[in-house]
Fold:
Amino acid sequence: MSAVELYTKGARVWLPDPDVVWRGAELLEDYKEAPCKLKVHYEEGEISLQDLHLHQKLAKETESVIDIKDKTKLPHLRNPDILIGENDLTSLSYLNEPEVLYNLKVRFEERNIIYTYCGIVLVAINPYEQLDIYNNDIIQAYSGQDMGAMDPHIYAVAEEAYKRMSRFEQNQSIIVSGESGAGKTVSAKYAMRYFAMVGGSQAETQVEKKVLASNPIMEAIGNAKTTRNDNSSRFGKYIEISFSKSNEIVGAHMRTYLLEKSRVVFQAKDERNYHVFYQLCASRELPELKKFGLMPAEKFYYTSQGKNPVIDGVDDEKEYRTTKEAMKMLGLSEKDINMIFQIFSAVLHFGNVKINEKDGESSEMAPKDPSVGIACKLFGVDESQMRTWICNKKITTVGETLTKPLTAAQASFAQDALSKCIYSKLFDWIVTQINKALVSQTKLHRFIGVLDIYGFETFQINSFEQFCINYANEKLQQIFNMHVFKLEQEEYVKEAIEWSFIDYYDNQPCIDLIEAKLGILDLLDEECKVPNGSDKNWCQKLYGKHLKHSHFQKPKIGMESFIILHFADKVTYTAKGFLDKNRDAVSEEHVNIMKASEYELVAELFADLESDADASKGRVQALQSGPKGTSKKMRKTVGSQFRESLFLLMTTLNSTSPHYIRCIKPNDLKAAFEFEPKRAVEQLRACGVLETIRISAAGFPSRWTYPEFFQRYRVLAISKDINRKDFRKSCQNVLPKLIQDPDKYRFGKTKIFFRAGQVAYLEKLRADKLRACGIMIQKHVRGWLMKNKYQKLRISVLGVQRYGRGLLARRYAQHLRETRAATTIQKHWRGYKTRKSFNRIQKAVVKLQSVIRGYFGRKDFKRRLYEHKTTIIQARVRAYLARRQYKRVIYGVVKIQGHFKRRKAKAELRQLKIEAKSMDHMKNVNKGLENKIIQLQQQLDSKKKVSTDVIHKQEETIKQLETEKEKLLITASEAAKASNKVTELEEELARLRKELEQERGEKQDLISEKQLLKNKYDKEVGQLQSENVKIKAELDESNRKLKEQSKIATVAAGGDQQKWEEQKLQFLSDMESERQHHQRLVKEHNRLLQRFENMQGEMQMLTSPTGHKRTPSDISMISLESVSPDDKKDDGEEGEKEDQGYGTEKKKRQAPVPPSASSMEKVMKEATAEKTDKEKLPKVPEAGIDVGLMLKLQNKVKSLEKERDQLRAKLEGLEEEMKQGTGAFSESAFTTLKQQSRNSGVDLDKSTLKTRSLLAESKAYDSLKMQELENENDKLKRECAKLMESIAKTTNFNKGGKTTAAGKEFLGHRMSLRRHKSEDPTKTVPDPSKIINDQFEAMTDELERRREECLQLRALLAEKSISTHSVAKQSYGGQDNIVNEDNELTMAYKSQRDIIRLLENQLQKAEGELKKKVGDYDAEVKELRKENDKQHKLIQQSLSMTPDAKIEATMQHEITRLTSENLDLREVIDKQADQIRKLKKMLKVYAKRMKDGEAAEIQAELEKEETKSVENVAQIKHRERNYMGMLEYKKEDEGPLIKVLILDLKPKVTSAFLPGLPAYLLFMCVRHTDYINDDEKVRSFLTSTINGIKKVVKKHHDDLERVTLWLANTCRFLHTLKQYSGEKQFQTENTPRQNEHCLRNFDLAEYRQVFSDLAVWIYQTLIKLMEATIQPSIVSAVLEHEAIAGLTGSKPSGLRGRSSSRAEDTPEHSLDTLMKSMNQFVRTLTQHAVDPELIKQIFRQLYYFLGASALNNLLLRKDMCNWSKGMQIRYNLSHLEQWLRDNKLQESGAGNTLEPIVQASQLLQARKTDADVDSVYEMCSKLTAPQIVKILNLYTPVDEFEERVPISFIRKIQQKLKERDHVETSLLMDLKFSYSVTFPFNPSKIALESIDIPEQLHLGNLVTRS
Structure:
């Protein structure tokens, strides 16, 4: 195809422009042959308004003439509009610089898109604005997606690298480059954040958090503010993120390059030093930084040179806290952190040191400069040495060492060199510590490297730093070119096409110029070795060696600079400073000073200079002043080190698969979304993007598959060339006729390859063809329409003309008559109006003049008054200011006097303190202390004897208690006998009869009072009835009137009804929000529970000595933890059970903290209040006593007694722990005590002195801890005493009402005493509890007294102790090192400590033994009293009842007893019946088989018949026996029962059972526990049920059927608990038999809430499982599935970018796959009988997830936003809506959740003109404003006949969207949002007694039906 065919009239081209780089134009004439001139017309639409404002001449020059001298000078052609704004620049047909620049500008300025692909490169333009495109939702959207499937994003590149690493087992690298301010650091940070999210360890090892925590540290010490960037990285870094075999982050490693050390000592204007200095200065008031003597940044020389120390929007103090927290996160100790900040502070102070000139040739530091002392103190070095060697240097000659003074300039240079060295070494040390913290403890598998390095730099003055940066970029560009070339060639080889070698720019000559032998770096190192080497000499050597090199030039002016032709630009380098920066020299004396630092870290920084091997690793070398021959091995220069590190980096990059991110800075003003073409094109040329375009354009950049090419361009083919069975053959027939030059295309195996511009040519041919066809069709259609229209118009016109002419004639005559009459009327009327108007205007003018004159007069008066008052105010203010200045001066004078007096007072105080610390004073203070210690020792001995006597007394008391126990046993036996004898209670009956008479009198009074109330009530009823008759009559009259006004009432009711509906909707929405909040809490609770269990498992793995241990997973975390003593005995290994009792108080134990006395007293007061309230109630006849109520009260008493026992047991456990904590003594205490008793007085004094010194030396922590434990023990004792006193006070032993549990115990003991007195009045029976309490109180008082003495002794020793230094002054002549030379202080301290502990141990041991025995006796007494209480209750109840009530109670008691016996007998009968049935069957078999001798087969045949008899076990059978619908089980069978019914139950087995059978069986077990009234058993059973369900769901969380099974059964169990709870609201649909089965003793309302929360958790688990199942199918089914034939919604691959990670064997999901999954869900839910309402809620949640996922994906895919795709999406969504209707789920609200994606598809199909703004606004009510704008910006026509969305339309839509009441700013929908779930009550019609137990469950040995 020739240029003549392309450059025709109307062709669009690009012309160069000096202002806007490239300018769009259109040819006004055809191109013929060069040379020629062409007229062009500039297209102003391609120039932004800003460019027009800046360059006014562009607006004037609309036409021009260009001179074409050669065919090669033809302007660049423009791409068709369909290709503008593409995601991938390589998909453009014409690949050239102006097209790349224009495409980036359109995407950035008009569409606000900052990312664009350019082949393998991601171009990122800095928006200078915070964008909401980096949150976790975006990460989830890009996770797992192919690179070409989504819009360009840095997450797509990161996902591509992560996918290649995990799929192909290849190491990856992401190379981020760009100039300062382009966003390199932020891009690298977001890439690492993506890896941390998708590669985060499930065990939460915190590795990914540590990787992210390294960013703030490196930004603080390596980033600074420049004129181009507020957070510019002044170093390069390469971070390797290591992954395990399971693709989880396990570690990281960082390498740094070229830290800009010169910034430490110098900053240009408006720039800052490194951030860490300003963070320290801003946080100087913090306590840990005050000791560093920091000042504001303006007062430090190193931080004030830029004159702009503040960054807008940055809080340096907050950043300091972030940096410190990051250091802690990475494991740096507090000591190291403080030391780091101390060194940084020292560098600041060192920069403030002033060096003065001295004698011209020497210098010195200012003598009184405080900065020197502060800096040396912080460095830990000698100040005098620092003063000497900063201003002098040492020169070593043969056999002689000389000291030479330095000038002020030389000394300042040495000062700055040392500061730079210290900062650089500390920077390297911090990087090393970060690498240690990020090192992996596991085996590394693969890694992904992120390289953040400078881009190509060129300034007015370019020095050594720019030379190294550009050298590194040359190396990177070489790798980039080779990689791009390699990918292009691989594609050609894969498709087996003919290709020639692509010529690309090779920068190897430039690299050789720099690094080859005798290159620039070699000559630089050689010049550094020369003793008198200089920059000028080195530059002259470069001229002589490389002047003829093609990439080296000499500047025309100057002899100390040179020019290198880099790949991006020509750079002029200034040679000044190259040698010094390459040497990076620091004086050897300075290094030695720093090595001698008293701080370990400072010395460690310079330790690597001790050996040559170590020195080669550092970047700082010691300056050798002697001859070169004295050094055997020269240390490496900065250039050689950088060359080696760069070589290692290139080796690493070559071994990985690279990914490139090129960051572009759009403007220098940091303005948001402003694009300067000049700045952008410079960077595009420098970063290699245009080189990628050039390589692509040199080959075959456009690639089409055969089907796509045929579908797109079949309009250009003729019918005979088409072969629909073979697309390739059709393309081979068509293409040669369209493109004559065969070199312009190639046929591959699966694709057609086109050279640049060919696709645009084909698009032009296609557009011309379609346009010609359209014109032909329009021509014929319009001709036919016009003919019909003409004939109709002619007939109509003739008729209209005939009637119209007559009408016009009549009208004209009438007009003439009316005109004459109107003229007369107008004449008179106009005269009248004119006179009236004149009079009105005259009056108005006069009035206006008067008002204006008055206004000006008043205004002048106010002005004068204002000036007068102003003069007065000024006089007063000036007087006030003078007085205030005088007071300030007086205040300053007084303050100075105060400071002077304070200094004098401090001096006097210091003198007094010195005198107080003298030896004589210490002797006076400690006088008599030795005698006091001896006296205390003797007191301890006496206490020991007294404790021995106490032990003997306690043994006697124990014997007395044993005798008392025997007496109590005798009493208990007599009480048992007395319970059956009524005659022995006559005395008690007489007393009770008297009380009964009193109660009868009170009852009679009540009856009379009741009669009076009844009469009054009858009277009031009569009055009310009469009033009711009147009201009824009035009501009838009102009804009649109401009917007459029915129409008006209907209208009013309509308004009220609407109001009530609104209130109802508001109420429902409030309920919904509350329910959602509750379920979110449940969800969060379950999430935290899962995390806690994960951490538990990890902790056990870490603490296990032999490996992994199984952890108990059946512990429920829903209810509160509680356990009884019996449970602990039975189930010791299961830990504490959960306690959610019925009617009992919830409690949550936190061992070992005991209950406080206040809580105990509160319980007792509540019991007392309850008793008092019942006593105050009027007494009613006792004939109607409810036995069930009595049983509940008895259970309440039992529970209270058990709580009391638990409290006592816990108190004893705490006391035992206190004993164990203080009773551990070493055996050496006895030996030490004996030795001390044998020593003389002198030895004792020495020991005492040593003990005192050791006590002074030791910390106060141990003593304070001991005192704290002792105080806690005393507190527990006091609380126990208060508890016992409270029990005694609140228990009434005299009245016959209901008593508390403690009262029953005392009352039982009192009854036994009465019986003893009745048998033997003279005999006195001692109260055992009183004796025990007295003994306990005596021992407690003795123990408290002993402990108080010990505390006083310790306090005295602590007060009189002295420090080691004072002891050394007093006894050892001030020599501290010999005070504890023989470890004598430690021995003395241990001896004293062991003696004290021994005495305490003896006391506590005796006390513990006594308490243990007392506890044993107390337990035995309790058992006896419980038996006695039972008998006493029966007697007490019988005595307090009337005769009728006694008879009824006796009958009820007898019925209960007979019922229980009847149940036992029924069980025996059932077992015997089963045995009889089996025996009968055996007899039949024996009788049948006896003749044949088959006795061996009898048993097998019997089992076979039994199996046949239970085939249809799931059916409800009615038997002759009437069951009660209960299952009885034993306590020890609870675990196996849970295992069978829950843990081992499989869904396949339950499919043949009754739906919900496990739930029914579990409830039948609960019914039996309720029947026997065993609250401990039901609590344990329900807790085990909850734990079992949670365990099985967690274990099989990925099994759909199992999770569904337990969701259905949990809901059924919850409904059953409600149905049989006995509450009327749940009994409306029950049968009478079901009402009989309701629970009678337990209220399980609290457990219903627990099971409701459990059902919510299972529901959420099921939703997650379903979402994970359908997620892979959503995009392909909703967005990509194209079911409408002939309507293609996607762009062909030739017009889109290419993906490099798409797997060929990836299974394709479609709409059918999604439908199959949904059908499977419905079948599973229906099979397990899930409630229909719950099924609707499940699919509503699933449809929300489906619609949200599809919409989020649509918002991130530009290729999906077009009219055709909107049609396809709407069609696919209609299938989903039809599926809901087919499954009768349309009322579930699931269809409404699809409204956002439906409206998005409608928006793609809608017209988008300015007139359609309102309709689009109303249509998109469910879409947020960012979503609507995003879709409109992404809208891209597939065909050029579709119109693009006008920018004006988008702006109007944005303005319209601001009118919404609630403007949402979220772009993506929340995929984690969940609707609140409810479980509507669904009662069952199945009777419990009719349910059989299938034998497949094997429950015959575990439960028994009853």
Notes: The chain has a mean pLDDT of 76. The first helix runs from residue 3 to 6.
